[in-house]
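Please predict the structure of the following assembly.
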Amino acid sequence: MTEHFDAIVVGAGPAGNTAAYTMAKAGLKVLQIERGEYSGSKNVQGAILYADALEKVIPDFREDAPLERHIIEQRMWILDDTSYLGGTYRSADFSNPPYNRYTIIRSQFDRWFSQKVRDAGALVICETTVLDLHMDGTRVVGVRTDREGGSVYADIVILADGVNSLLAKKAGFHGELKPRDVALAVKEIHFLPEQTIEERFNIKGTEGVVIEMAGKITKGMVGTGFLYTNKESVTIGVGCLLSDFKKSGVSPYTLLEEMKAHSAIQPLLAGGEMKEYTAHLIPEGGYNAIPQIYGDGWLIAGDAGMFVNAVHREGSNLAMTTGQVAAETVITLKTEGKPLTAKNLAVYRKALDESFVMKDMKKYKNIPHILDNNRQFFVAYPNLVSQAAHTMLTVDGIDKKAKERAIRKNFASRRSVFGLLSDAFKLWRAFE
Amino acid sequence: MTTAPPPPAARPAGRRSYKLDARLAGYKGVWVFIECERGQAHTVSWELLGEGRKLADTLKVELAAVILGPPGEAIRGLCDEAIRYGADLCYLAQDPVLSDYRNAPYTSVLTELVNQYCPEILLLGATTLGRDLAGSVATTLQTGLTADCTGLAIDPENRGLAATRPTFGGSLLCTIVTLNYRPQMATVRPRVMPMPTPQPERAGRVIEHPLALVEDTIISKILEFIPDERGQDANLPFADIIVSGGRGMKRQENFQLIWDLAAVLGAEVGASRPVIQAGWASADRQVGQSGKTVRPRLYIAAGISGAIQHRVGMDKSDVIIAINEDSSAPIFDFANFGIVGNAMTILPALTQAFREHLATLKRAC
Amino acid sequence: MHILVCIKQVPDSAQIRVHPVTNTIMRQGVPAIVNPYDLYALEEALRLKDRYRGRITVLSMGPPQTEVALRKALAFGADEAILLTDRAFAGADTLATSYALAAAIKQVHEKLPVDLVFAGKQTIDGDTAQVGPGIATRLGMQLLTYVSRIESLDLDAREITVHRRAEGGVQVIKTRLPSLVTVLEGVNDMRFATLTDMFRAARHPLTIWNKEDAQIEDITKIGLKGSPTAVSKVFAPKPTDRRAEIIETQSGQPADLAATLVGKLFAQHSDLALSISSSSVSSARQS
Ligand SMILES: Cc1cc2nc3c(=O)[nH]c(=O)nc-3n(C[C@H](O)[C@H](O)[C@H](O)COP(=O)(O)OP(=O)(O)OC[C@H]3O[C@@H](n4cnc5c(N)ncnc54)[C@H](O)[C@@H]3O)c2cc1C
Ligand SMILES: Cc1cc2nc3c(=O)[nH]c(=O)nc-3n(C[C@H](O)[C@H](O)[C@H](O)COP(=O)(O)OP(=O)(O)OC[C@H]3O[C@@H](n4cnc5c(N)ncnc54)[C@H](O)[C@@H]3O)c2cc1C
Ligand SMILES: Nc1ncnc2c1ncn2[C@@H]1O[C@H](COP(=O)(O)O)[C@@H](O)[C@H]1O
């Protein structure tokens, strides 16, 4: 295959799709290669979509994207063996369009996104696996696929092949994942009739609920559980550090089974049929775990670059943002006629450092521990939490420290309970 | 049957009326097409007469057998047999052109008969012949056809035929009705309906339908018929005893244990789909939705989970024995006897136990 | 030579789930695939093209997403792909489906005469095996169903000879073109598409026809309106009342379990002894 492209994108998840879309829209000749039968075919899981990241790429996505429900209520539960203690934050404001967070079914969402990528003019090839990178010295010049005549070349290769990026490892861009850098998350989709869901969660229309869970359910391991409502299904899952799973010897499956059996959760799933059980790694290492993400003729975006905000499982929006920034970096260099060398591509990392991505990554470095140590305050300051929650839950790409500053001000003005404050902040962080 | 979404469930028949035009109300009687190749009737035709009898009685109409074939006593003889199996009358159309099955002449003759005598229901076996013929006849008659049915009933409200069949790979059943069209056509799976017991004393009429077909007008020619060498291929549908193995047999070698037990019982060997796909057994041994439907006296399933697609092919067996490691395997939900354990150790023991038992039987007589 | 292949995109029934409460099909996350049986038809057509040259047109009726299936066919080597899509086609049963497809094939035939139409044995969602015969009947083509082998094809004499799977044997049939062939499963292995093929397929413009383009003469004959049959109910197979009697013994030894089972079996079903002892004379054949 002698054909040459401006850019090759490996992977058709949120990161790859955003990168391919953005570059194609800018008129670059883009090839995207996806291993799955179609984009998203490997992602049957339900997930939460944060509007802002996508909005920046496809402003009118709400018109035709397959969105399940928009979140109007966030519950935060701390569970012990039999009971749970929780706060609910529900605000009519969350029901005022444009909505900020949605539940989605990845397989449907990714497929929709992929169509956009095609429409933008990128060449999208599925059922094709990239096996290797073609190098010219230290420079990446193309990829080798598993198909006959399967080599193809480009000025740049963007690796968006997801967590545990085989390619990046092969090419030695980053080493093996360390167990403490990744969480193993398992989740299931349980199908329930639409009205049952609406009754159980007291929602209507396309309203949805998210429950974040911590406490005994993780058997002392660092991690959280989560539950989202989709149109006619409920997504439930739990994720803990791989290293903790190793230590405790608890199997992720039993963990989820016991969690589902919990008196607080069981009734929410009753009568449902389990459809899909997926186990998947989420990079949790956060900031410190981020590998080298650029080099001569290559960039890494999304999970492949360990960009996941573990606490909020905001992976897909970080994936989109990194994908977008990667694409824009390439576009600028190309229009300026600059070569795509490591030196020039360094602006990618710089741009990310500026963006909320890295700031949040830094900020949430050690959240899970805070989360374990501050349960009591969850009751002590419900209003405070909810205030915080509201501001914090509006994910809008403003970095969260800035928001806290705002909150801190109005909070301090009302009452000043010394040290407790700082704890309270930790709390907001843990619980928004 | 649906070509595109919405799924069947989203297609309430109520939306369209069952009301019959006066013209169609004149269609009366239940017909069963008697499938015969080389003078031999396919047993599914007799099974259908058994079922057709019930429908006709419910509707209080006559049950007719339709027999097409070459001139000669062999075919004629089938009329008496059909009557013994429950038909009130037979339509007999004989012509040299009909000696081998060919779509075109069979379609034109059957269509002609239907248009002349106007039955309300026309049933055929869901065989390669039946499905080939039914598809063309229904299209020529511009009427509804329900394929591969596993259940037939009359809807008391409108005297219509309610045909039930598996759909979506057997994971669901659906009941299909024909609206304002006649006749209501259906093909029915062999071995799903019980074989009726023939009644020698039954009498009935034979209505001969004269034909004057011209061979030269028929474009397709049969150059040769290569019969399957008997013995070579499995004859599962009619086996009295079947020993089946599934993925749980783990390896091809282990499958010999199935053959060993079968040998002692003089049984046929069946298999689940993964086994066929793995190449441990030939395709004609697949039992289930996309394989054979069987109804033996005894069905022994080893290492088979009992997935619905397998089940639909065998749960009409008189007695089912299941051997499975997993006590919660679905197959135990519809088997008669179960042994929870490793098939590799249970099977040899079972083979031995049967051998001994049979020995004692032989000594007894 | 011009072969038209009918393919359908179907939900992967292996992954279909039935809703336990509402008994409806849960399509959420169920991938759509090319009807597996149709791939045998396509591959058989491709092999003829390899031998005799010519063109292959794939035709599918379905929702817009069907494009994926058609592109797959293009990647394997089809030259043209036509998507027949229109709300008016939705909910069609086999009679209405064959009407629409036949109409479309007529249009294709006008532009470039069709020698052969290939279809799969059946679909895994409809499972009817009726659309093929339906199309042939409507177009007055010679119908060859359950074809396991194409013995010979003579384009000058316009004759084709095939092996057709019949009950208890194989018919060797010779007939005239144009004819419609439905291909038996397992008769071939689908080829792999090269990366170049993938590129070609991804870039190839699809022909998309609505009911006007297909020149549907009588719109009362398509879609839900044109369907004589209606689904009155969909339900999950009812669990049988019988629950297996699990054989247990003190020792739990295979030998004891087996003996106990055989004992109970003949005690409760004495009639079985007959059919066994009679048939056990002729012992099973290993194949
Ligand atoms: C249990 C769980 C719950 C989560 N919940 C949320 C949530 O609620 N909200 C949220 O925002 N995020 C969530 N995430 C994180 C989110 O799923 C990921 O961060 C996001 O999918 C990352 O996108 P990506 O494009 O980087 O990688 P991916 O989505 O993994 O995409 C990578 C793609 O590359 C393809 N690929 C891989 N290797 C190759 C190759 N060699 N050749 C060709 N193609 C290849 C894969 O098939 C895949 O399609 C969750 C993750 C898990 C595990
Ligand atoms: C459209 C469609 C059509 C299909 N048609 C058919 C069909 O016609 N026929 C068919 O059979 N399937 C068919 N299937 C496949 C069907 O869905 C199941 O996948 C299949 O029947 C499973 O076969 P199995 O029970 O052998 O394997 P599995 O489901 O894997 O079950 C293996 C069983 O063996 C048990 N086991 C494992 N080890 C041992 C041991 N040492 N001793 C004892 N037990 C052990 C396990 O507990 C398990 O229950 C179809 C599927 C689709 C989608
Ligand atoms: N909507 C469709 N579009 C194109 N071809 C179809 C369609 N439906 C059925 N067919 C063809 O007809 C064959 C038999 O389908 P069915 O009668 O549904 O079992 C299939 O294998 C296809 O080749």
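The first helix of chain B runs from residue 22 to 25. Confidence is low (pLDDT under 50) at residues 1-15 of chain B.
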